[in-house]
Specification:
Elements (H helix, E strand, L loop, with lengths): L1 H11 L3 H16 L3 H16 L3 H12 L12 E5 L3 E7 L2 E5 L1 H17 L3 E4 L12 H11 L7 E4 L5 H14 L5 E6 H13 L5 E5 L18 H16 L3
Parallel strand pairs: 1-4, 1-6, 4-5, 6-7
Antiparallel strand pairs: 2-3
Helix pairs in contact: 1-2, 2-3, 4-8, 4-9, 5-6, 7-8, 8-9
Length: 248
């Protein structure tokens, strides 16, 4: 019964209900002899349906992150972490402002890495574009690092960047000023390929350390991977955005 309910929900809630309405509209146009319009709408419906599947999202995500697998050995003279979102209006025990889930995961990985290497940490990320409630990623990340007993004199803050391109530009300036030539780049696995390319354009060769890198050789799929979902749409959208970002 739970499986049946979840299947029904998949088509009663967005984006599933939108797919149902689009498909019904294409059938209506076909019955009214608007054949070309019907076929065009049906093609759009199929494309939208595919873009809402976690099956499709996982395939293109795996191709995107496979360029930089998790390293077997990690070494460098600094740790460079990119912010991937923060909210200025969320209250926490440390005060106002909170990191997004992905930025928080990046920071946790940085702490573990610092405890092994004891090298300077560069936090790169300001207030992201397009979000009126965006918090300052680098400043909030510093607050979390201090709460986890990382020495303040080991933390360097770059809090101006609003895009990955600016992350690379401003962080590269700091690296050159500090004579740090071998940074370990910490960011999400899906964001890594684009980030590495942008740092190369700034003349910086990084050691990639992808957060949440999937190492499963062959993923198992089930029925729900072929049902439309918000997670599927977000995964496809996010991965395609990374591909498009490489054109910068």
């Amino acid at each position: 019964m739970p499986y049946i309910i979840r299947i029904i929900y998949s088509f009663l809630l967005p984006p599933g209900i939108i797919i149902v309405l689009l498909f019904a509209s294409s059938i209506f146009l076909f019955m009214k002899n608007y054949r070309k319009s019907s076929y065009a709408l049906l093609i759009c419906t199929i494309l939208f349906y595919l873009s809402c599947l976690t099956y499709v999202g996982s395939i293109i995500h795996k191709q995107n992150q496979s360029q930089y697998p998790f390293p077997s050995e990690i070494s460098g003279d600094s740790i460079l972490v990119l912010g991937e979102g923060a909210n200025a209006n969320v209250m926490t025990v440390d005060g106002k402002g909170s990191l997004s889930g992905q930025t928080a995961l990046n920071v946790i990985e940085v702490v573990k890495l610092y405890n092994k290497l004891h090298v300077p940490i560069i936090l790169s990320g300001g207030n992201g574009l397009g979000n009126a409630n965006a918090g300052n990623e680098a400043r909030l990340s510093k607050r979390e690092l201090l709460a986890m007993q990382v020495p303040e004199d080991q933390i360097i803050v770059e809090d101006r960047s609003r895009t990955t391109q600016e992350n690379a530009r401003y962080a590269a300036q700091i690296l050159k000023q500090k004579n740090l030539a071998h940074p370990i780049l910490v960011t999400s696995a899906s964001h890594m390929a684009r980030s590495v390319e942008l740092f190369k354009k700034e003349g910086i060769e990084v050691t990639p350390l992808p957060v949440q890198a999937i190492q499963v050789e062959k993923r198992k799929y089930n029925l729900f991977d072929f049902l439309p979902s918000v997670n599927g749409l977000l995964q496809v959208n996010g991965t395609l955005r990374e591909y498009l970002g490489k054109l910068q």
